[in-house]
Amino acid sequence: MAGPAGNSENSLITGINITPLVDVVLVLLIIFMATAPLLMRRALSVNVPRAAHNEPKATATLQIQMTAVGEVSVEKKKLDLEQLDRMLRERLLTDPALHVSLAADKTIPYGEVVGVMDVVRGAGVKKLALEVKSK
User: Fold this and answer.
1) Quick one: which H or E segment has residue 10?
2) How far, in Å, CA of 81 to CA of 62, rounded?
3) How many Cα atoms occupy the beta-carbon half-sphere of 66 within 13 Å?
4) Which residue from 9, 30, 46, 119 has the least number of CB within 10 angstroms?
């Protein structure tokens, strides 16, 4: 004769087994930890000519413009890449947290835009944004 607390067929399971849930969450965590560095290495900001949604600038930035013929200008002053590098290094001495935005014409080859980005990063600028127009 089995009592109410015995192992009879009519007793209910009142506990929740969370072991499968923990296993699934652990596997997902491992997958995300393994793939996150790979995604970050391949991430590169792309200059799209128009964007449906954009955000206004939160801080004051130094604007660099590239015209359709590849001329680089800062504050309406035309510069070559060496002058740009020198000017950015001088600005970084007074403002180490300098923010720079690059507005390039959509007809400029991708390599030229990356070349200017390389000069800006090489000068020591940590915050570089690419400008887009809203639709």
Assistant:
1) none
2) 16
3) 26
4) 9
Looking at beta carbons, which pairs linking 24-27 to residues 24 or more positions away fall under 8 Å? none
Q: Give the domains, in start order, of the chain with CATH numbers.
A: 50-134 (3.30.420.270)
Residues 42-58 have pLDDT tens digits of 443 444 456 555 555 55
Could you identify the residue written with the tokens 């997958």? 31
Task: Tell me the C-alpha to C-alpha distance, in Å, between residue 62 and each of 46, 77, 105.
Answer: 19, 12, 17
In the chain, where does DSSP find H-type helix? Answer: 19-42, 81-94, 110-122
Q: What is the three-class DSSP state of 104?
A: strand
CB 87 within 8 A of CB 74: yes
Strands 99-104 and 127-130: parallel
Cross-sheet strand order for the sheet of 72-74: 77-79, 72-74, 62-66, 99-104, 127-130
Give me the residue label for tokens 């935005």: 101
Q: What is the pLDDT of residues 6-29, one digit of tens each?
A: 556 677 777 788 888 899 999 999
Cα–Cα distance between 122 and 116 in angstroms, integer? 10
